[in-house]
C-alpha cells in the first residue's frame, strides 16, 4: 500500500496483491466523509476497468464491537489479465475475499494510526 496524499476525509492510495504471476494493483480515491463508511473508487489499475470498479466498507456498532460489511464492485479490463482474474473472481471470489477483506481492514487501521501520529 502506498499513500500518495491524505486530505481531510480523502486519500489517494495505490494498493496491490501478489498473484503468483506478478501483482494486481489499483489506485483508488478513498473517501470516508460519511460516518462509518469508506468508499474506494478505482482511478487506475492493471486489471480492473476504471468505470464502475470500487469497494466499500461499512462499519456499524454491535454488542460485541463492530459489524463490518464489505462490498466489492469489479469491472475487469478486456485484456488477458482482466479476463483471467475476472473469471477467477467469479469462480473463487467467495473463498478468497474473506481473508483479503481482513487484510484491507488492517491496512485501514494502520492508515488511521499513521494519520493520527502525523497530526500530533
Task: Describe the protein.
This protein is of the alpha+beta class and 120 residues long. The chain has one domain (2-113). It has one helix and six strands. It has one helix at 80-119, and strands at 2-7, 10-18, 23-31, 37-45, 54-62, 65-73. The protein has a six-stranded antiparallel beta sheet with strand order 1-2-3-4-5-6, with helices on one face. Strand 4 (37-45) and strand 5 form a beta hairpin. It is globular and about 45 Å long. 14% of the residues are buried. The model has no long low-confidence stretch (mean pLDDT 83).
Topology:
Layout: E1 2-7, E2 10-18, E3 23-31, E4 37-45, E5 54-62, E6 65-73, H1 80-119
Antiparallel strand pairs: 1-2, 2-3, 3-4, 4-5, 5-6
Strand content: 35-45%
Distance between the termini: 23 Å
Low-confidence stretches: none
Based on CA atoms alone, the radius of gyration comes out at 15 Å
Task: Spell out the key features of this protein.
120 residues; alpha+beta; 6 strands; 33% helix
Quick rundown:
With 120 residues, the chain is of the alpha+beta class. 33% of the residues lie in helices and 42% in strands. It has one helix at residues 80-119; strands at residues 2-7, 10-18, 23-31, 37-45, 54-62, 65-73.
Amino acid at each position: 500500500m502506498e499513500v500518495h496524499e491524505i486530505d481531510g476525509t480523502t486519500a489517494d492510495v495505490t494498493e496491490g496483491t501478489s498473484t503468483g504471476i506478478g501483482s494486481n494493483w489499483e489506485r483508488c480515491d478513498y473517501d470516508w466523509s460519511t460516518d462509518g463508511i469508506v468508499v474506494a473508487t478505482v482511478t487506475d489499475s492493471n486489471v480492473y476497468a476504471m468505470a464502475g470498479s470500487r469497494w466499500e466498507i461499512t462499519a456499524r456498532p454491535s454488542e460485541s464491537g463492530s459489524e463490518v460489511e464489505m462490498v466489492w464492485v469489479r469491472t475487469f479490463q478486456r485484456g488477458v489479465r482482466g479476463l483471467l482474474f475476472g473469471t477467477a473472481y467469479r469462480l473463487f471470489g467467495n473463498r478468497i475475499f474473506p481473508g483479503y477483506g481482513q487484510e484491507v481492514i488492517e491496512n485501514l487501521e494502520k492508515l488511521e494510526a499513521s494519520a493520527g501520529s502525523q497530526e500530533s
